[in-house]
Each structure stands twice: as structure tokens, then as C-alpha cells.
From TrEMBL:
The keyword Signal applies. This is Uncharacterized protein. Gene3D superfamilies: Rieske [2Fe-2S] iron-sulphur domain (2.102.10.10). Residues 34-54 are annotated as: Disordered. The lineage of its organism: Eukaryota, Sar, Stramenopiles, Ochrophyta, Bolidophyceae. It comes from Triparma retinervis. It comes from the Eukaryota.
Amino acid sequence: MALLLTLIILALITICSSYSTSSFTMRKGRPSAKKAMSSLSKNPNSPTTSSTSIPSNWKLIPDIKTSDLPDKDGQITLIDTNLDGIKDAGVNPTGAICCASFAGKLYAFKVNCSCCQVPMNKAKILPPPEAGLLEAPRLSCDFCGSTFNLRTGEPVDDATKSEGAGGNMLGGMVKGLMKSRGRKPIKVYALSSDDKGRVLISL
Ligand SMILES: *[C@@H]1O[C@H](CO)[C@@H](O)[C@H](O)[C@H]1NC(C)=O
């Protein structure tokens, strides 16, 4: 009786161990199959994604000439683009954007500050914080003082009062209230012109 029991236990152990080894090899086999799959799917994909990633999205701004754009340092002008993609039936029916001139270059960005939502046509354009080829001018909201990289729209350290920026007291309070939502970038657009002085925008 005791012998039979021992035999049964032994048999059980053998079954269990063989089961666990087979499940171990299966588990070991799975990731390598996955790896093979992913390397298979990666190879044909990468050339197609890189060849289609250059978007052709330049649009002519109707009725706007290069002479309508600002040309004085730090000047900001509102331009109605009337273009789908910028127009917003509720808040921006004419598709207005801000255009700014600084150091002989043109910049375009969304009308309202991403922090306090006040129009940016009276904002301050400031030189880059440091010298360097990659440095971009800054845009500082005249109401709340939120400051952005004028080329990328990314938020940067807020410009200070000593730079003639910093917003006003009420704006500072609004900025304080919005701070919990995190700093958002401001949408920027690239501009260009053709030989007839018409203005193009990249959407
Ligand atoms: C921008 O601000 C103006 C004035 O406060 C407002 O009328 C307009 O709806 C705002 N536009 C957007 C896109 O928030």
C-alpha cells in the first residue's frame, strides 16, 4: 500500500515536472517569436513612414500681400486668413492670426495666449535669452507675462519686468490660477511668399 502510494506520488511529480518544463520552453519560445515578428514588421514599415512624413501643407492666404505684414522690429499685426484649419466658427470666424516682425524675420502664431486666452497683438517680442544660431526670439504676453519661444511656440522662462515684460497684476493672478493646468505651448505657423507678393502659410 505504502509502495503504491509512493509510486503514485512519484508519477505525479514526473508529470508535474515534465509539464512545467514544457510550459517553460513554451514561455521561452514566445518572446523570440514576438521579436522576430516585430523585426519583420519594422523593416518594411520604416521606409514608408519616412517617405510620407514630409507634409505638403502650404496654403495661400487670400487677399493678403507681403505689404500687409509687419516690418518694424517688434511690431505685431492681426491678419485674417479666412482659412479652414484656423477658422473657428465660435471664437475665430475670420481665422485671425498674429504676425510679428523681429530682426528682419517674420513669425506667425495663434491669436490668443495659451495661458490667459487674451489676444497677443500687444504682446512683447524680445531677443533670445542667449546668443547662438539656434536661439529664437521670445514672445511675452502683455497680460499674464507667459513667455514662449517664437519659433517653436514652446513655453520658456517668463521674461522679467526688467526686460519690459512680465504682464500686469491681474494677468499675474490669472496665470497663477492657470498654473495647475501646466504650461502649454502656443501654436506657431510658418510663413512664406511667392514672386507676386502673395503670402503662404503652413498649416
Ligand atoms: C480670443 O480672445 C478674444 C477676446 O477676448 C475672444 O473674443 C476670442 O474668442 C478668443 N479666441 C480664441 C480662439 O480663444
